[in-house]
Amino acid sequence: MFERFKKAFSGNAKDTAGPNSQLAHGPVSEWAATQGFGFSVDGTGRGVSLEGNVRGRPWRLQLGSPSRHYIRGEELRARAQLGVNEDAAVLVMNRPLKEALEKQAYELYTDSLRTSADPRLPEEMRWLAMYDEVGWDNLPRAFWDRYGVLSDRREDAEAWIDPALGRLMLEWSDPAPSTEVPFMMMLLRGKLYLRMEYTPADVGILQHAALIFTSACESAMDDWTAAA
Questions:
Q1: Which residues contact 146 (CB under 8 A, 6 or more apart)?
Q2: CB environment 121-160: b (16+ within 10 A), e (fewer)
Q3: Bigger pLDDT: 148 or 10?
């Protein structure tokens, strides 16, 4: 299960970027227009950006080359400035990725020849060291089998990842990403971030990821009073 992650973190790893999906921009542009999202393509003609707002707060979703070694092919990433309580910090990550990062962190800790200054190491490893995994009863077992949730305050995580958001994170339409496809979402310092591997490279995956992200934005704004 973790062989792909092992290769990604290996110093001898070959380029894991993989082929670009060559997804036609037309369907994405047409869908964005029906949703009222801004749409643009970067200078290479390969990277795509979508822009919108949730209750007046701007967000941006990008599809392009990966910025993490554990992501193959294209990466889908999103960011929103929500202005919610900056003390709330919650990380949700699919379990294979979480366990692979934890294993890598342990190997670094026990290997005196390597240090945390390794530039290939993602900042997600610091988050895993900072926060404890939490859980509660009103999400189905399937959610906990697929995802791990970390926070320094369980009540913040439980308030944000409500049953409706939890269902969205499970109910991917076909062709759906497997449970091993890297996925993470982070609420930190009043901002929301999403990062995942775009596999399979299908417009439906992009649409559902955007729905998860905007729904997560709404849930965060429902739960915390906007910062003054």
A1: 94, 95, 169, 170, 179
A2: bbebbebbeebeebeeeebeeebeebbbbbbeeeebbbbb
A3: 148
User: Any idea which residue has 């915390």 for tokens?
Assistant: 224
CA contacts within 13 A on the Cβ side of 64: 15
Residues sharing a CB contact under 8 Å with residue 86, sequence separation 6 or more, in sequence order: 189, 190, 227
Cα-Cα-Cα-Cα dihedral of 212, 215, 221, 224, to 10°? -60
Residue 163: pLDDT above 90?
A: yes
Residue with tokens 């990403």: 177
59 class by beta-carbon count within 10 Å (0-12 exposed, 13-18 middle, 19+ buried): buried
The residue type found at 185 is: M
Q: How many CB atoms lie within 10 A of CB 174?
A: 7
In this prediction, residue 78 carries a pLDDT of 97
Strands (E), 9-104: 38-41, 48-54, 57-64, 75-81, 90-94
Residue 92: the pLDDT is 97
Which tens digit of pLDDT belongs to each residue from 87-96? 899 999 999 9
Asked whether the beta carbons of 55 and 221 are under 8 A apart, the reply is yes
The answer to whether 73 touches 197, Cβ cutoff 8 Å, is: yes
Residues 149 and 89: their CA atoms lie apart, in Å, by 11
Tokens of 123: 């900042």
Q: Which of 68, 94, 78, 82 is nearest to 177 (CA)?
A: 94
